[in-house]
Each structure stands twice: as C-alpha cells, then as structure tokens.
C-alpha cells in the first residue's frame, strides 16, 4: 500500500480524503509569497520551478508516507530576491547545498547533534516555530485586513462543525472566489500548453557566489528547522509509525533530491517544521497530502509554464495568513509551558523568543546555553550543602 497511517485509505471515506486535500494546501503561506516574488522578477523558469516542487513532493510522499512538507529554502530566497541572482547561481546553490547536507548526513554529524539537544530546548524551538508561523500569518493579514479577518472569522466558524477537516481548503476557495469577484477587470487569459524544464548551465562564478553568499546562512536553517526540528515534531505527531522520521532521513532526502533536481531549474528545497504543523492541523495524515500537492505543482509547471504567476496571484495571501495564525498558536501551546518548573519554563520561553526575534539556528544555540546554565546553577545548592 503506497500510503499508511492509523487507518487504511479504504477506511478513510470522503471526509478523510478531503482532509488530505485540505492539509495539502494549508502550507501555502510559506510557499506562495516566495514563489510569487521569485517568478515576478523573472529569475527562473516557472516550468522548472514547479516541476521541481512536484517531483520533490511526490518523492517525499513515497519515502515517508506522511505529510512531510516541501518548501523553498528561505535564506536562499531572501538573497536571490535581494540580489537578483541568475538561474545558474540558483542551480549552483541547490547543488552545493544538496551535496553539503548529504555529506553532513552520511558522516553522522546530523544524528549526533539531534541526540544532544535537551528536551527544554526542543520545546522552546516548538514554541518559537509556532510564534514564527503566527507572526508570518499576522503580517499577511495586515496587508489586506478585510480579507484576512473575514477568512479568520470563517475559519473559526468552521472549526466547531463537521466541516473542520475541510477548513483550510474551504477558506482558500472562498477567499479566491471573493478575490476574483472583486476584480475590476476580466480575468487574465491563461493559455494551456506543454512546457518542459530545461537544463541549466553553471559556471565557476555561479558556484562561488552560491558558496560565499548563501551556503552558511541557509545551512544553519536547514540543519535546525528543516531536519532536526521537523523530526522532533514528527515524532510527537506520529507516535506509532514503523519507521521513524529522523534528521538523517530528512537530510538524505533533502540532499539527494536537490542534487537531482537543481540542474533542471528547480529552486532549492527543504522540509520544514512549520509546514508539517500546518498540514497536520488541517487534516493531512498520510503521504497522500504531499502527493496531491506534488501533482498540482507538476500540472501547473507542465501545462501553464510562464502563465503560472497569473494563477497564483488570484489566491489572497491574507486568507492563507489566517491559517498560519491559527496553526501557529496551536503549536505554541506546548504542555511543557504549564507542567515544567519555573527554570525550565524560562529556558523554553527564552529559546522561543530568540527563534522569533532572530532565527531558529540562533534560538537553538541560545537555548543550549540557557539549559546548560540552568543545570549548572541547579547543582550548586546541592554541592554547597554537601560541603
């Protein structure tokens, strides 16, 4: 059976199937802004970008059989958009990051780091990721408050009803219809045809820019958020799976798939803890969700090609922001915040705030230092008493 969860697909019925569809597109708040910005600058071929996401997601569906997300690498996107990097540099970045992640994984370094992270720091990172999601969603809502608040109200009305598994897809669908109905002009003409990705040539200058400007900032985020934190959250969401989703497995898929897809014009991709939370919260439980997302990306890339941007612009980002706010708050409500000691809560909150205000990689480092100090100070009274 290609996809597994607590129940077989034959037992799902329509409700569970729509839940998978709902979860498959609930993570668009991370995906859409980056993809739209990159495509609007005409830096990369849309066919290669969407085919890359589609093949990556389909591979993930078969490998993990769980809703492991596929996202554009955020640090790469920020630098690409700011510096208007070429398609060759973007491809070189995917190759170099893929090779580096693969090397760190096969040498066991990723597994070693993952095993050494204290529980309080992991809970703090979970808090931080939740806050990051909620803040990202809030910023999207602020840009279009009427649509965003209407979407949030609609979402809150759906959650207590039998339509809860369909909430994300209904919110996005309703907001898109509203957006189309509000257009002052007729819909832009979108032509359908066959658009195949093409091979991207890379020279030494592309490789140098990728190594010098992008490698380290993105590597820190990939090792923490895309691999270690994603594995931690997956272990909490899926407790009965036969084969655990570990940082090393996530590292292998990230490294190998980027190496294979980057030369075809794919944007550098990774997994993500926030995306996993959002997809799970809105109904995704199996590999069917990334398979649905991947199939949609393949269809957009192969059939629409350069017209893909026109289609994406019809989806209101403020409505997607409402989904992010809700999922972020839900993730941030960690049990450890209420049942831990005051000192443990201080470590968790400190870690979470650093993740929000700076980034997840620094949050991890600060959290480890804070936990070390907590344990060190906690042993001092006992040592003094014994003396």
Structure characterization notes:
By secondary structure, the chain is an all-alpha fold. The protein has one domain (10-122, 129-182, 189-330). It is built from 18 helices and two strands. The chain has a two-stranded antiparallel ribbon. The N and C termini lie far apart (63 Å).
The largest sheet has its strands arranged as: 1-2
**Distance between the first and last residues' Cα:** 63 Å
Largest sheet, strands/sense/barrel:
2 strands, antiparallel
Q: Give helix % range.
A: over 70%
Whole-number tally of structural domains: 1
Total strand segments: 2
Would you identify the regions where 5 or more consecutive residues have pLDDT less than 50? 1-9
Q: Per the principal axes of the C-alpha atoms, what is the gross shape?
A: globular
Structural class: mainly alpha
Residues in β-strands, percent: under 5%
Radius of gyration over all CA atoms, rounded: 21 Å
One letter per element, helices H and strands E, the order comes to: HHHEHHHHHHHHEHHHHHHH
Number of helices: 18
Average the pLDDT over all residues and give the rounded result: 84
């Amino acid at each position: 059976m290609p996809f597994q969860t607590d129940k077989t697909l034959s037992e799902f019925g329509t409700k569970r199937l729509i839940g998978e569809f709902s979860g498959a597109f609930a993570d668009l708040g991370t995906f859409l802004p980056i993809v739209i910005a990159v495509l609007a600058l005409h830096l990369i071929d849309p066919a290669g970008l969407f085919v890359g996401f589609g093949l990556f997601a389909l591979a993930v569906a078969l490998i993990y059989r769980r809703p492991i997300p596929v996202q554009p690498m955020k640090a790469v996107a920020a630098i690409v958009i700011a510096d208007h990097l070429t398609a060759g540099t973007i491809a070189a970045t995917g190759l170099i990051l893929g090779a580096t992640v693969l090397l760190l994984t096969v040498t066991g370094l990723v597994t070693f780091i993952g095993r050494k992270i204290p529980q309080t720091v992991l809970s703090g990172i979970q808090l931080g990721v939740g806050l990051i999601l909620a803040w990202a969603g809030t910023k999207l809502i602020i840009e279009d408050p009427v649509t965003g608040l209407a979407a949030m109200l609609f979402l809150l009305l759906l959650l207590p009803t039998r339509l809860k598994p369909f909430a994300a897809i209904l919110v996005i669908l309703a907001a898109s219809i509203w957006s189309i109905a509000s257009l002052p002009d007729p819909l832009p003409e979108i032509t359908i045809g066959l658009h195949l990705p093409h091979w991207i040539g890379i020279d030494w200058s592309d490789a140098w820019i990728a190594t010098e400007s992008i490698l380290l900032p993105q590597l820190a985020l990939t090792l923490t958020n895309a691999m270690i934190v994603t594995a931690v959250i997956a272990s909490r969401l899926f407790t009965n799976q036969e084969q655990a989703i570990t940082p090393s497995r996530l590292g292998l898929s990230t490294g190998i798939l980027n190496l294979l897809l980057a030369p075809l014009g794919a944007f550098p991709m990774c997994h993500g803890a926030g995306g996993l939370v959002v997809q799970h919260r809105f109904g995704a439980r199996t590999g069917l969700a990334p398979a649905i997302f991947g199939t949609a990306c393949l269809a957009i890339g192969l059939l629409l090609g350069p017209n893909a941007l026109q289609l994406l612009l019809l989806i209101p980002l403020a409505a997607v922001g409402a989904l992010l706010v809700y999922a972020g708050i839900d993730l941030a409500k960690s049990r450890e915040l209420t049942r831990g000691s005051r000192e443990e809560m201080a470590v968790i909150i400190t870690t979470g705030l650093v993740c929000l205000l700076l980034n997840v990689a620094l949050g991890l480092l600060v959290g480890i230092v804070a936990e070390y100090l907590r344990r060190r100070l906690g042993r001092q009274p006992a040592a003094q008493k014994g003396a």
